[in-house]
Amino acid sequence: MSDIAVPHVKPSLWGRVWTAAREPVDAASLAVFRIALGLLIAYDALRKGEKIFGSNNGLPFRFPYEGFEWVPAAGSYAPLLANIWLISAICVTLGLFYRPAMILATALTAFGFLQAEEFYLNHYYLLIIVCLLMSLVPANRAFALDPLLARKYFARPEQPQTVARMHMWLLKGQTEIVLIYAGLVKINADWLQLEPLRSWLIKRQGNVFFGSIWQYDWIVAAGNYGIIALHILGAPLLLWKRTRLPIFLTYCAFHSTNHFVFDIGIFPWMTIAMSALFFPTDWPRRALRLSSAVTSNWQPLAPSWPARAFAAFACVWLVSQALIPLRHYLYKGDVAWTYEGHRFAWRMKLIDRWSPGFIPVVYIPEQNLLLVPPSRSLLTRNQMEQVATRPRTAQKFAQQLGEHVGKLKNAKDVRVHLYYPVGYNNREATLLIDPTVNLVNAPTSQIPAPWIITHNDKPLRRLEQFRVNHDFPDFHKLTPMMGLPRPVNCHQTSDKWTVCRAEGSQQMSRAN
User: Fold this and answer.
1) C-alpha 110, offset from chain centre
2) Which of 91, 110, 273, 409 could disulfide-link 101, Cβ–Cβ 3.0 to 4.6 Å?
3) Which residues contact 103 (CB under 8 A, 6 or more apart)?
4) What is the DSSP string of 166-188?
């Protein structure tokens, strides 16, 4: 009987991708990134770990992230947590008890981040994300103590110093999202007119020896548009072998300059380390003249349920990370002005917000009292800066102020209104919050806030044309602007509170 030829069935696109995702690649590059990440966390733990964990200790007002109000303050445990954070970072660096150490570092980084909304920084958000992803990949396969201990004390066979290609894809995908969005968000009217970068650079001319060149607009323009091109075009070019090295070196120069000009913590170095993931995975071995870890004996990752679960997670994660920065389109107005959807969207070094100050007015109808608290003495400096420029943080302050006054005056109905001018990018300050709205009862969900004034018609100005000034209305004109009665018989208490009776108090009592 003659043989019957069996036609060759070409694998589907998904089949080829799935096979490539499970292929073993050298773990050396991932290991170097693990070492860099551990060192950066250790540096931050030594530099300001206790400050991060203790940022909420003993404060009368606290501003947690929405949905994380349950996270407690560290209290007296702040120094201990900072030390544990440092130890976990050292273990990550050494690849010692890597998985539990990485999970612990992730949990502590997130806990410190969630302590206080007023300390929000994009680089800590990125650090949490990177730590979470690194908790899911075997970054201790190379240049780590764990394999040595496993062989010596547990008699385990030698494990391949490889990882699945999809482990690298996940980290590269996250890096691409961050870098590309960092460029996309700068395609806006203000940035294209060189602000606020021009103003920032002029103010920081003395930070570096070449700062004097920033007085020329064409230099600033080159940097302005170059930053956009570097991120939008440069990030994808990291995927191409021929352009990878020059783009990487450009990123190194860019982030190093950022470090010395703006002093933005570990973010520049973390981004450089993430960009190095795009080089061939065995580049550390070639640099150290070590033999390759990948041999014909190492088989692809088995298509087991953990591998499928990781692949499914990676797909869902990257899609969600690509969509979350777009949520500001669900809100009315310019995100640079309203600040709705600004966070967790890689809008880094993009807006210069300022405030001449704000005036909270507390009204207690049943007692016919109008009160103005000394906000600066109630809040820390960081809290004051955030409350004065971030409307949703201002609402949290108003709600907590209402609770505070209610307990102080034994009152059930306490209303808080804000006179809240804000400026940004050399624009004059104008009202961002509707002064007629009682913020104590205003909705707090992430739906568009109806009490935020979404339109700002103030023109953009150059730094030389801009003067920080704002004419606050007289208090007797301010309360009618808020829909409140006029104040009479005002006096200031010893702790700087302004207390007034409400004009027409008897009528107000009957009306309310």
Assistant:
1) 12
2) 91
3) 135
4) HHHHHHHHHHHHHHHHHHHTT-S
Question: 498: helix, coil or strand?
Answer: strand
498 has which bridge partners? Answer: 372, 492
Q: CB–CB of 244/238 below 8 Å?
A: yes
Chain center to CA of 168: 23
CA distance 178 to 321: 9
Cα-Cα-Cα-Cα dihedral sign, residues 31, 36, 38, 39: positive
In this structure, the dihedral spanned by the alpha carbons of residues 139, 143, 146 and 149, taken in order and rounded to 10 degrees, is 160
pLDDT beyond 90 at 290:
no
User: Which residue is it, tokens 């069935």?
Assistant: 9
pLDDT band, very low/low/confident/very high, at 291 (cuts 50, 70, 90): confident
| Token digits of residue 75 | 């209290």
- CB contact set of 176 (below 8 Å; sequence gap of 6+): 235, 236, 238, 239
Closest CA to 34 of 160, 162, 139: 139
92's enclosing H/E stretch is helix 78-94
Interatomic CA distance for residues 221 and 218, integer angstroms: 5
Strand, helix or coil for residue 71: coil
* Residue-wise DSSP of 95-157: TSSHHHHHHHHHHHHHHHHTT-GGG--HHHHHHHHHHHHHTSS-TTSSS-SHHHHHHHHS-PP
Task: List, in order, residues 6 or more apart from 383 with CB less than 8 Å away.
Answer: 59, 61, 63, 116, 118, 397
Peptide bond into 356 cis (omega under 30): no
pLDDT digits over 422-453, tens only? 999 999 999 999 999 999 998 877 788 999 99
Q: What is the pLDDT of residues 499-510, one digit of tens each?
A: 999 987 544 443
Only one residue has tokens 């306490």, namely: 414
Q: Which residues of 314-336 are buried (b: 16+ CB within 10 A; e: fewer)?
A: beebbeebeeebeebeebebbbb
- 167 CB-near residues (< 8 Å, 6+ apart): 30, 137, 138, 310
d(CA 251, CA 122): 18
The structure tokens 């104590």 sit at: 440
Residues 329 and 413: their CA atoms lie apart, in Å, by 36
How far lies 381's CA from each of 55, 112, 119, 219, 375, in Å? 12, 19, 11, 35, 10
Lookup: tokens for 464: 């030389």
Q: Let me know how long the chain is.
A: 512
CA distances from 145 to 102, 142, 152, 251, 283 (A): 14, 9, 11, 31, 20
Where helices occur in 297-438 by DSSP H, the ranges are 305-323, 335-338, 375-378, 381-389, 391-409
Helix (H, G, I), strand (E, B) or coil at 419: strand
